[in-house]
Amino acid sequence: MPELIDIQNLDDIKLLVNTFYGKVQKDTLIGPVFNEKIGNNWTAHLERMYRFWQTILLEEHTYSGSPFPPHKHLPVEKAHFNRWMEIFTETIDGLYKGALAEEAKLRAKNMAEMFFYKIEYFRTGGRNFFES
């Protein structure tokens, strides 16, 4: 098996995104949520994800917009975000090794946590949000 290298360019981003979402689509927990939401628009979604990660990791500013609003009303729980993160980490670790690969995992973890808390906040109308 060849030694893994770091994420370096748009082709690496595309491989990451395509591999990750290929796994997501087949996953029994999160696959149905993604497939229901995205429907027949996977090509457009993948293109948007290429631009998102290209902007985040390569600092090539090709993405504009706000990533949270499309997720605001998804029927997801903490387990969905945990599974998303498991698949993302597994995908990164299987393809790449290096500073940008680690940055991708950190950014994904932070985004998953923020999205979960924001979804919960909107779901509860802010009630009991900060109580344990």
Description:
This protein has helices at about 10-25, 30-40, 40-60, 80-95, 100-125. The longest helix is centred in the last third of the chain and has 26 residues, at about 100-125. Helix 1 packs across helix 2, helix 1 packs across helix 3 (about 40-60) and helix 4 packs antiparallel against helix 5. The radius of gyration is 15 Å and the shape is globular. It has about 130 residues and is mainly α.
Q: What sort of overall outline do the alpha carbons produce when their principal axes are compared?
A: globular
Extract low-pLDDT stretches: none
List the secondary-structure elements in sequence, H or E: HHHHH
Number of strands: 0
Radius of gyration: 15 Å
How many structural domains does the protein architecture include?
Answer: 1
CATH top level? Mainly Alpha
Largest sheet: none
Q: How many angstroms separate the termini?
A: 47 Å
What is the strand content? under 5%
* Helix percentage: 55-70%
Q: Determine the CATH superfamily.
A: Globins
Indicate the CATH architecture: Orthogonal Bundle
- Structural class designation: mainly alpha
CATH topology: Globin-like
Nearest-integer average pLDDT: 90
Number of helical stretches of at least 4 residues: 5
